[in-house]
Amino acid sequence: MSDTLTATLSRADHRTEVLPLTARDGRALTLVHLRGPQEPHRGPVLLVHGAGVRAEIFRPPIPRTLVDVLLEAGWDVWMLNWRASIDLEPTDWTLCDAAAFDHPAAVERVLAETGATTLAAVVHCQGSTSFAMAAVAGLLPRVDRIVSNAVSLHPVIPTFSEFKIHRLAPLITRVTPYLSPAWAYRSDGYFSRLVRRTVDITHPECRNLVCRMVSFTYGSGHPALWAHRNIDRATHDWITGEFGRVPMSFFAQMSRSVRAGHLVPVREHPELPDDLATAPPQTQARFALIAGKDNRCFLPDGQALTYAHLDHHQPGRHALHVVPGYGHLDVFWARNAWRDTYPIILKELAS
């Protein structure tokens, strides 16, 4: 592929429509439908964000986004704001809630709107873990391809992150029901100011305090979710408004899952069996697992474990890509993602 960027489509060309969506438990969500100048000739693809962000993570202010290349390739692009989105009313959510209530409703709605028989999905972080839970539990039978970034059924985290999630998080839960990188510019009581001051002292890697708060909240690194060398200044500034509240209920579930070595359901959802990550998957969807080799939020070992599990039950069906020089979110946000990571996603969606 050429090293020269030729952008033929930009956000200005997007036709954006926001549709209300009701989850299976009645919670209000939204779907964002995106179209380019040309009508799509491929089927629908659903993009699912991670925790404490929103659907807009797939449209950072870089010259060529994942949405751009998907539209150019003829995909009918849909982005889901599930219950972890900062664009929705905050709630005390778990991955189980999203798996049982949000993702099945979103898939059904997109298929109903498009008339398609199946759809593909690109899922990231906790959008990926919860979507994978739903898929392997048999709740998404009409999803035929899943491109998963960073983590899916087997979360593996750095040693210092284990200390934070197992030791510090239970103490923090006694003080606050949530954490938020937005505390960098919007205080919510004395504890938020204490966290901000702590991060200001311990994370001197850049001037963007939200960037530094994200590393404190989600990983082990300076920064933890991307490499500064990979993202341009406009994106680094844009980050300031793209992170918000994450409930401690999520961190409690992730702590249990890390200890177990695989995702663990924590709420009463009969449709989600306890052996989600050990039993044969109840789906024929093909998984393409992507891991940034430098990810300091979820280590690439986790995606390798999920690949081994899937390949054991469905040999030769799935794929694993470990991308050198990339971390967690720069897989989507990097200035050179159009050259280094988007082609992987496009190829896997077309497989």
TrEMBL record:
Its cofactor is FAD. Keywords: FAD, Flavoprotein, Hydrolase, Oxidoreductase. Signal peptide: none annotated. Residues 44-158 form the AB hydrolase-1 domain. It holds the Pfam family Abhydrolase_1. The keyword DNA-binding does not apply. The keyword Oxidoreductase applies. GO terms for molecular function: hydrolase activity; oxidoreductase activity. Belongs to the GMC oxidoreductase family. This is Alpha/beta hydrolase. It comes from Microbacterium saccharophilum.
